[in-house]
Amino acid sequence: MKLNYNKAEFTASYGKFSQIPPSERIEIAFAGHSNVGKSTLINKLFNRRNLARVSSVPGKTATINFYGLDNIYFVDLPGYGYAKVAKSEKERWSGLIGGYLGSDRDIRLVFMLVDMRHAPTKDDVQMINYLIDTEMPFVLVLTKADKLKKTAREKRMEAFKNEIPCFEDIHVVPFSSMTFEGVEELRSIVEDVISDDNEEETEE
Fold this sequence. Notes:
Elements: E1 9-14, E2 26-32, H1 38-45, E3 64-69, E4 72-76, H2 87-101, E5 107-115, H3 122-133, E6 138-143, H4 150-163, E7 172-174, H5 183-203
């Protein structure tokens, strides 16, 4: 099923999990460390410049943001792991992310973003382990891929095998907002998820 990504619209932001209304559509979430490029990825996916607000200040997305398109919500989770915020704020973010991922919402897929240039953080590994342990479908998106030359990129991909649990069994998509690498593959993954949903409805 082809989606018209240009028609995606911002729907709502929530600062607490308890504020989020019950799930009414299938949901695809974006998770990752502060400043890993979630907002940038969302804008590229939807071919829009400012649908998701991009900030040079890490930890700026302190809410769960919902974007609607057809029968899907695309859900931008707060970036985790930013050190320069109060402990109470970190706990609120953690409650938002944990509350959302641990809920009974119809989460079909998580795009888990990791900066390709560096080893994953402790928080990244913890999140990946959580997704594996809860058997939540996810795709690993390696952002800022254009920043690495071929040899450095190959070295990082090799290093990830030891740094990321079950790396060789995970669907991995290198992504660049500058070259658009990975955009079409990510769109096709989204469309596969939607197609599976439509097939289930037909069978019923």
